[in-house]
Amino acid sequence: MGKRGQATIFIIISILLVVVVLIVVYFSSSKPQISSSNEYSKVRSYILDNINDNSEKAIIILGLQGGYTSDPPRYIDYDRIKISYWNLSNKSYPPLELIQDQISSFVFSQLPNCSEVQNLTKSEVVCGNKTVKTKISEDRVEVDVTYLLSVQGLEAASISQEYKKEIKIGLKDYYNHALFILNNSDCFSCLRNRTLYYNISIKQIESNEYTINMILSNSSQLNDVKGYVFQFAIKK
Predict the structure, then answer these.
(1) Residue 33's pLDDT band (cuts 50, 70, 90)
(2) Rounded (5°) CA angle 165-216-88
(3) Which pTM was predicted?
(4) What does the alpha-carbon distance between residue 180 and residue 34 come to, in Å, rounded to a whole number?
(5) Which of 36, 189, 208, 225 minimizes the number of CB atoms within 10 Å of its CB?
(6) Where do runs of H (alpha helix) occur along 73-170?
(7) 3 state DSSP class of 158
(8) 136-145, 147-156, 160-169, 177-186 — which is least confidently predicted?
């Protein structure tokens, strides 16, 4: 066989090798994309479910504890619930800004850590900063979460996106009702007129040391959180 024939064979073999390499690269890169895309959706859904559940849970807890998701600074232990004492004279009650921070802190503390997310995928997970910000509007509570993380092995696999949860509940109204009760706790007619005008119920549990004030809405369409209660205690 001449040199020209040998050169032709080498060229053919080289071309075949290149084709084989390209085929291997194509399939090795395309298969993980499908898998990673599914894993991406799984991770994002897991985080979103976590935010949805714990945003509502935070609102329920702070309603039962008088504006706090953590232990109130001063409280009574009633039926295994730590109900915050509110005091008008020294303004010892949580401002609305603190209640927003309480929701944010609770949601932040319940966000899945990196090891939990890693259990959802075979790809390497890299986690970054997490932030939670809450805004209490007139008829809803908005919880905005940014969770910086990425699933390695896929282009544009970053899941560092913002998550938003809106809960239809007049938490600001409950808070204003509570302040009204605090300012008019000795005026029975004032409280009665309040319940009629705003279509709410105010229930009071009396003891020798304190009064527990429970605020409930009579409108079933007002809240996403059914049977919501906001309560606080006043020391006698």
Answers:
(1) very low
(2) 95
(3) 0.80
(4) 57
(5) 208
(6) 96-110, 114-118
(7) strand
(8) 147-156
Q: What is the DSSP string of 29-82?
A: HHHHHHHHHHHHHHHHHHHHHHHHHHHHHHHHHHHHTTS-SS--SSEEEETTEE
Domain ranges of the chain: 33-235
Q: Do residues 231 and 212 touch, judged by C-beta distance below 8 A?
A: yes
**How far is residue 145 CA from its own chain's centroid?**
7
**Per-residue pLDDT tens digits for 59-116:** 999 999 999 999 999 999 999 999 999 998 888 999 999 999 999 999 999 999 988 9
In this structure, what DSSP letter does residue 139 have? S
The whole-angstrom separation of Cα 106 and Cα 197 is 34
What phi and psi values does residue 231 have, to the nearest 5 degrees?
A: -140, 155
Contacts 24+ apart (CB under 8 A), 44-48: 44/159, 44/161, 46/112, 46/117, 46/120, 47/111, 47/112, 47/117, 47/147, 47/159, 47/163, 48/163
Q: From residue 62, how far is each of 58, 98, 162, 172, 231 by CA, in Å?
A: 6, 11, 24, 13, 9
Strands 75-78 and 81-84: what pairing? Answer: antiparallel
**Of 78, 79, 61, which Cα lies nearest the Cα of 70?**
61
Q: What phi and psi, each to the nearest 5 degrees, are found at residue 87? A: -130, 125
